[in-house]
Specification:
313 residues, mainly alpha, two-stranded antiparallel sheet, 8% strand, globular, disordered C terminus
């Protein structure tokens, strides 16, 4: 179905497009002896935007804007560790397989963060930070998820700089030029048996996922404004929504991956996370409304009291 859709769209968008989307031949710059890696810059840019947007949305929920920074100081490190753990566990060969380098499991700057692990441990970090600062976890989670989706969109451009996580070979007008890559050095290298650095042309799955995440962020914001959701339900919608796009991207990927029953591990993970998201939406159906009503001056009024619990999450 995905292949047929791409084939149908290709003629409609071919006019006026370049022959292909170029990829960088270097993903690292040196400031004297200090390497500046594009992958890290994309991740940092995503974090900065997410924290800024979360602060604005926390204010709408009656909390201080500064809480976004205070709680993110816990959520972000936990998320990075969780993302790396998930990547290493599901892709162990480069680190523990034949010819692997175990110490490279700590080289986060070379790429490799699994969003599933990042969200799982990031949520744990947010829970710790939220408890320390007296903010209900679900208030923070609902405020954060649109920014998290934007951060994912920006982070995917780090994969573009690293010439990684592309799809199958293709000749569509928006095909992505991929170079043979020296991961440790962070730049293109000559392909084996060739005088060129160009490996071939592939589906730009990084771009597909980046655009999907931006659309997801917009949908979450609009749903939050349009409907009187309960605390935690927007978080659940994000958890259920992201896998819908990720499954499509995973089915287009061509890189080696561990499989279960013939499918990539991330496809099965996406299905389980989608079901988890639906469960979160359902489980929070009796919580207080997420966004408090506002008075005549636009200030948030006291939120509706909970009918199930009175403790701080």
């Amino acid at each position: 179905m995905t292949t047929a859709l791409v084939a149908a769209l290709a003629p409609a968008v071919s006019a006026g497009l370049p022959a292909s989307i170029p990829s960088p031949t270097s993903g690292v710059w040196h400031l004297g002896p200090i390497p500046i890696r594009a992958y890290a810059l994309c991740i940092l840019a995503g974090i900065a935007v997410a924290v800024w947007l979360t602060g604005r949305r926390l204010r709408d929920r009656g909390h201080a804007v500064e809480m976004a920074v205070d709680i993110s100081a816990w959520a972000v490190p936990f998320g990075i560790v969780g993302g790396r753990l998930y990547h290493v566990i599901t892709t162990p060969d480069p680190y523990f397989g034949e010819g692997g380098h175990p110490l490279h499991a700590f080289f986060i700057w070379q790429g490799g963060l699994g969003i599933w692990g990042a969200i799982a441990l990031g949520t744990l970090g947010a829970w710790i930070g939220a408890r320390r600062h007296g903010v209900p976890l679900m208030d923070f989670a609902d405020a954060a998820v649109p920014g998290v989706a934007v951060a994912q969109a920006l982070g995917r451009w780090g994969n573009w700089f690293n010439n990684e996580l592309y799809g199958r070979r293709t000749d569509v007008p928006w095909k992505l030029e991929i170079h043979c890559w020296d991961q440790a050095a962070g730049h293109a290298t000559t392909c084996p048996g060739s005088s060129s650095t160009v490996l071939g042309y592939f589906h730009p799955t990084f771009l597909y996922e980046s655009l999907f995440c931006l659309v997801l962020a917009l949908v979450l914001v609009l749903v939050d404004r349009r409907f009187r959701l309960r605390r935690g339900q927007l978080f659940g919608l994000y958890v259920a929504g992201y896998p819908l796009g990720r499954i499509v991207v995973e089915l287009m990927r061509s890189d080696e991956a561990h499989r279960i029953l013939g499918q990539r591990v991330n496809v099965w993970t996406s299905i389980l996370v989608f079901l988890l998201g639906l469960a979160i939406v359902w489980a929070n159906r009796d919580r207080p409304v997420a966004l408090p009503d506002r008075d005549a001056h636009g200030a948030p009024q006291a939120p509706e009291p909970s009918v199930t619990s009175h403790h701080t999450e």
